[in-house]
Amino acid sequence: MARRSRACPGRFTYHVLNRGNARAEVFHTPDDHEAFIKLMAEAFLRKPMRILADCLMPNHFQLALWPREGGDLSRWMHCLMTAHVRCSSRHYRSSGHE
Questions:
Q1: Please, are residues 59 and 26 in contact by the beta-carbon 8 Å criterion?
Q2: pLDDT for the residue 96
Q3: Which of 26, 34, 57, 78 is the most buried (most CB within 10 A)?
Q4: 52 located within any domain
Q5: What pLDDT is recorded for position 84?
Q6: Closest alpha carbon to 53 in 2, 15, 27, 95
């Protein structure tokens, strides 16, 4: 069951991070990093987001984001993470469950 959305008003800076399950690797190769950055750009085209900084590590990523309006952060992250999981699962032929 999905958790309820957090209230994230616009015009504030947010530190967002996401780790792989059990801190497993999320980015296996430099190509994975590049693909994720492209997905961030695609998410930006769908829902503009001010990306102040990013840090991609093998088992997680951290972003500094500055949404314009309330709700933008949730919508942008949903778009990004849905695309990332689909692309990763398709590329590694995985359902995400072992």
A1: yes
A2: 53
A3: 26
A4: yes
A5: 92
A6: 15
List all residues 6 or more positions away from 60 whose beta carbon is below 8 Å from its beta carbon: 17, 18, 19, 20, 23, 26
Q: How far apart are CA 81 and CA 55, in angstroms?
A: 16
The pTM of the full predicted model, rounded to 2 decimals, is 0.82
Return d(Cα 80, Cα 63) in angstroms, integer: 12
Asked whether residue 98 is assigned to any structural domain, the reply reads no
Judge whether 1 lies within some domain: no
What CATH number corresponds to the domain at position 85? Answer: 3.30.70.1290
Please check whether residue 85 is in contact with residue 21, taking contact to mean a CB–CB distance below 8 angstroms: no
CA proximity to 81, closest of 55, 50, 60: 60
What are the phi and psi torsion angles at 65 (to 5°)?
A: -125, 150
